[in-house]
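User: Protein folding is very new to me. Would you mind checking the protein record under this note? It all follows right here:
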Amino acid sequence: MTFVASENPMPPDNPNPARIQNLDSLRGVAALSVLLYHYTQRFGDIFPDLPKPAISLSRGFFGVHLFFVISGFVIALTLTKTGHVFNFIRNRFFRLYPTYWVALVITFTLVTFWPLPDRVRNFHELLVNVTMIQHWLDVKHIDGVYWTLSLELAFYVWMAVLLSLRLLTEEKGKYVLVGWMLLIVGYFQFGDPKFVYDSTILENILLLRYGHLFFAGMALYFWHQNRKSPIWKIVILCLGLVVQYQTFQWEGVLILLAIYSVFLGVVIRPLVPLTFKPLLWLGTISYSLYLCHQYVGYILLRYGYTVLHLRPAVNISLTISLCVGLAALLHYLVEQPAVNLGKRLSKQVRSISFSVPANRGAGVRVAGARFGDA
């Protein structure tokens, strides 16, 4: 598979809705695994004196790895439909920021009135968090899960830069991705990386810590789109396993191999349909749920144990129900309208650009790139 430049700003029709449904189901699995990890394992680490459930999902944090691979796959798909880099930026903005801002205010307010140990933030930190680049500025997150958002944002920025510089063209794109993966491997082999669950500002901006997962997701999408010339895609997937070993040892390698296998059997060649409606719905609201589940959930769990004296199973079930309900409100009242607004603005811009005479608009348009068949 190769990359070709596209002059068509209109997104193609979705050729396989079932595949996208399966992708939504995987989002639901990732969201549920992270949520259960925080409620059954991480909460007990922070509050060791409170009751603990009989079973904990101690490896549920690997759901974040699945999220990153999905993100790489989806962004590669998005780039195939993006004729302008400004369309890409606009769509990412409306998909990320409005929901994030509302969740940010909700979490800050609740943590202010019902404080959690070492997790109370001031107004200055709130203002910096509004930008979503607080990690780059060495400012604490209002909610612990926000550390992944700065990585997502860095990934989007780099893709926009590569798109605008035409470095995702037919001859250059695969070399950029393979070269970046080799840079990550070399960094862990010869550099001095910090604690594996943390990342420095440089690691964050250059995607040195988790970038291999984004690029693996992109390679999986390219493989799905065209199974010709598979060597460079296989190289990226193998380098991803190398980095996974460097950071998470064999356990991480097995997890990533499982993610590859699931993508091959559920997304790329959907042999096993994941059409369980509750899971699909959970995947649909997964972004809102991810944003509002951790510290809000901790406050609810703590109240359930200390005031209501609930059993762990009841307390965790009730907390999940309340946070899912909050996430559904965020999704339908904020996230979905914001995404629709972004789409309407894109359509208006396209109609304006189509009305400009060719001899007047030829020098104005920002060139994009599209991933296509060989």
Remarks:
- Residues 1-15, 358-374 have pLDDT under 50 and may be disordered.
